[in-house]
Amino acid sequence: xxxxxxxHSDKWSVIFSNIxxxxxxxxxxxxMGIYDLYVKEMTFPDLSLExxxxxxxxxxxxxxxxxxxxxxxxxxxTFSLSEGLKNYYHIYDWIRSMRERKNVDNEKWFRLNLIKExxxxxxxxxxxPVSKFTFINxxxxxxxxxxxxxxxxxxxxxxxxxxxxxxxxxxxDAC
Length: 175
Hints:
- This protein has helices at residues 33-36, 86-99; strands at 12-16, 39-43, 51-56, 59-64, 75-80, 115-123, 129-143, 157-171.
- It has two helices and eight strands.
């Protein structure tokens, strides 16, 4: 058996299940294309374990105390801004609606106006999926500002900060 390859930072993709209040149209190329295809950068959150220590005789003993989802760190995603600010607008509108307590998806409970899943697919060097990380019940808690400048023709980007309730890692068989 040979040595496995290393994972590269550009062999991944993101799939959003939904954006509350956003109903995709045919002109968006794919269902969530203005989100899935515009992701430029992602800061994958770390995972930590809290410990409490007890002391017995001359020993220090560690005990895990973390609950399943109490120490989950934020997910950060940077998007290219779509023409006409369409992908920015839908997130802006959702956050504004949440602040004004509007039920944008007509969910049974207002609290369920959230992104159901965000899937991050990691791929091998031949772009075959090898693992899938799923973030469940996601809320965008921050939408970054837009930095506009005159005389410079750079691609505009914005970043969102996301809190999630749970996550799953699934290793997939490469075909």
